[in-house]
Amino acid sequence: MNEKVIIFSAPSGSGKTTLVKHCLQEFPDLAFSISCTTRNARGTETHGIDYHFISADEFRKKIGENAFVEFEEVYSDKYYGTLKSEVERIWATGKVVIFDVDVKGGISLKKYFGEKALSIFIMPPSVAELEMRLIARGTDDLETIKTRVEKATEEISFKNDFDEIVVNDQLEVAKNKIENLIKNFLAL
Fold first, then answer.
1. Whole-structure pTM over 0.90, yes or no?
2. Domain range summary for the chain, segments of one domain joined by +
3. 166: left (phi over 0), alpha (psi -120 to 50) or beta
4. At CA 104, angle to CA 26 and CA 85, rounded to 5?
């Protein structure tokens, strides 16, 4: 298998992580790229499985070492990034890299990988529905949710920078559409 990547991006609360986990179950040739972040773990998130949780100072040191494919300072001192070593580790096993990243990260990854990448934007049914999902998730306070909803409105304006847009209003329909997109991409 040649070196390919699949990029999932979406506003927070769109169901992107649920869909990525589904793809990992359906396609044994995919391997999850574990991003780096300086934010604290949420809920049951585990270091080295969900994210590599590191300090802002350590993150900035890695930026200086040119260790990232892409990175973003999403909020002040809240960094997210993709380590080059993580992509190389997955490709060395002969698998396709799957990314679960924010919208700016997704656009950066698509620019970096070009034709090797399939980029998929997961669209919430509406911003109001997105807000309801974030509240129901119960991992953020209302101020954080308000910030995320404002950011989502901006992020949705970049949806056409992606190869495909999948509206996640019915999970099974979204899963089927994504499975077909990935099957076609892997067959190239």
1. no
2. 5-187
3. beta
4. 65
- Residue 120 exposure: Cα atoms within 13 Å on the Cβ side: 29
Q: Which residues contact 145 (CB under 8 A, 6 or more apart)?
A: 131, 134, 135
**What's the mean per-residue pLDDT of the chain?**
93
Burial of residue 87 (CB within 10 Å: 0-12, 13-18, 19+) is buried
Report CA 57 to chain centroid distance, whole Å.
23
In this structure, what DSSP letter does residue 39 have? S
Q: Where are the beta strands (DSSP E) in 55-188?
A: 68-75, 78-83, 96-101, 117-123, 164-167
Sequence-distant (≥ 6) Cβ neighbours of residue 13 within 8 angstroms? 124, 130, 131, 133, 134, 137, 148, 152
Q: Distance between CA atoms of 85 and 68, rounded to whole angstroms?
A: 8
pLDDT digits (tens, 9 = 90+) for 67-125: 999 998 888 889 999 999 999 999 999 999 999 988 988 999 999 999 999 999 999 88
For position 158, what pLDDT does the model report? 96
Which CATH number is 5-187 given? 3.40.50.300
Residue type, 55: S
Give the integer Cα–Cα distance in Å for 2 and 5. 10
d(C-alpha 149, C-alpha 26), whole Å: 31
